[in-house]
Amino acid sequence: MVSIIFASLAPSVALLCFFYLKDQYNSEPIGMVIRSFIYGVLIVFPVIVIQYAFQEEGLLLGPFLESFVLAALFEEFFKWFILYYIAYKHVQFNQHYDGIVYGVSVSLGFATMENVFYLLALGVEQAFFRALLPVSSHALFGVIMGYYLGKAKFSKKGKREKLKLLSFLIPWVLHGVFNYILHVQKYWIYFMLPFMFFLWYLALRKVKLANSKYFTNHSTEVKNI
């Protein structure tokens, strides 16, 4: 059991530290980051209950519905809900990059608990595969979700609702594509590798853009003093 918990936690901690340290200007309070992570852990339970109920009723079955609705829709919605109501509205959410930190934290909390269940069922030998694909993909979806929520928070009122919607829709679609590749492609590895490269490219670009937003805003404030 200890080995399973360690194997589940280690990749999440590594990824969280990576994105946390990418904040070039104003690191978030560790306590708030841990709190977001714990909320991410807790939302696994209602998601599992909902997914189990639909499966027992024979609803939302088939590769497309399972990929885009049963898994991606419910998981990304609960992560978005927690990120929005726990982090977005908090006073500590005061820079564009903060959305990425908290988005990754919530997502990796979810991925860690999900990983514990998978490794209990399938064995700790699955840990390397889980770290490379599901855990890292959850982190990257969190980056993208957090980027658009951060952008929404510091945008004009007219653009804010559209950006909030994008913060949910884009991770949902990407998550659905990720699941669908695993479901239906016989040679899934040939599709997954370029998709993961694309996810990393997109996420790191959002990291760079979010940091540049701070620099631009800070430079404007200095000029106005």
TrEMBL record:
S-adenosyl-L-methionine keyword on record: no
NCBIfam families reported in the protein's UniProt record: intramemb_PrsW
Regions that span the bilayer: 6-21, 33-54, 60-87, 99-121, 127-150, 162-181, 187-204
Record InterPro entries: Peptidase_PrsW_arch/bac, PrsW
One Pfam family per UniProt: PrsW-protease
Signal peptide segment: none
Localization per record: Cell membrane
Family: Belongs to the protease PrsW family.
Topology within the bilayer: Multi-pass membrane protein
UniProt entry keywords in alphabetical sequence: Cell membrane, Hydrolase, Membrane, Protease, Transmembrane, Transmembrane helix
Name the UniProt record assigns to this protein: Protease PrsW
One annotated GO biological process: proteolysis
Function statement: Involved in the degradation of specific anti-sigma factors.
GO molecular function terms noted in the UniProt entry: peptidase activity
EC class (word): hydrolase
Enzyme Commission no: 3.4.-.-
Domain of life according to the entry: Bacteria
GO CC annotations, alphabetized: plasma membrane
